[in-house]
Amino acid sequence: MPNDSDLPLLGICAPRVDGAIQSESREIFENRVRLTVEALGLEKMEMAHYKAAIERIPAVVDKLAASGAQAIAINGTSLTFSFGRKFDDGLIAQITGRTGLPVTTMANSLVRGLKVLKAKRVAVATAYTEDVTNLLCKFLDEHDIQAERPEFMGITAMDMSGVTRQQLVDLSEQAMKNRKVDALVIACGGLRTRDLTVEMEAGFGVPVVSSAPAAVWGALRLVGVNDPVPDAGQLFQLPA
Prior knowledge:
Radius of gyration: 17 Å
Low-confidence stretches: none
CATH architecture of the largest domain: 3-Layer(aba) Sandwich
Oligomer: single chain
Number of strands: 9
């Protein structure tokens, strides 16, 4: 195992006001990268709050670059997909130009994961409201990925600690019911899904790609970390 100082330094734009990173994300990052984190101050999963957080991104990435980050991941799936593919692509290009570093967003990593898994038709389960969920489906369509009629929880708060394992199972089963798809998408970086992924993949017979693990997968690849992660699903077993 390499010394901690030998690990790549990954910069994270964390959406929450407290700058917290999902615990399952930290579990995968551990012993693979070092992290430097700055908060974007997103208070709710609503358009007005997304816009306010987006305005803070340039200052936040400047801090991450100054701290020595070797790549930058902008977390918060709905933070960028809500404004469409052109915006998401443009933000990545803008921050790459600003910092000279490789950049991804959580939404971008989610799509990249679906692409490498060759998923063209997907079932969708989200924590979001119907309006935000529809924006995700539009974003996927802009990437030539067809979303079947989605299921959603209607949550606007950033805290997902009240969402139970059974609620996620029930939501996912409803999303997959009578669907012939290539993958299941579980969207919202605040949802804990790692411990369900392998079980769901076996039960549904398709890959499961969810926000937090997909974001970690995409971020790790920016700094050349490609080792398989056990019990994290098919996405983490793919070759570099």
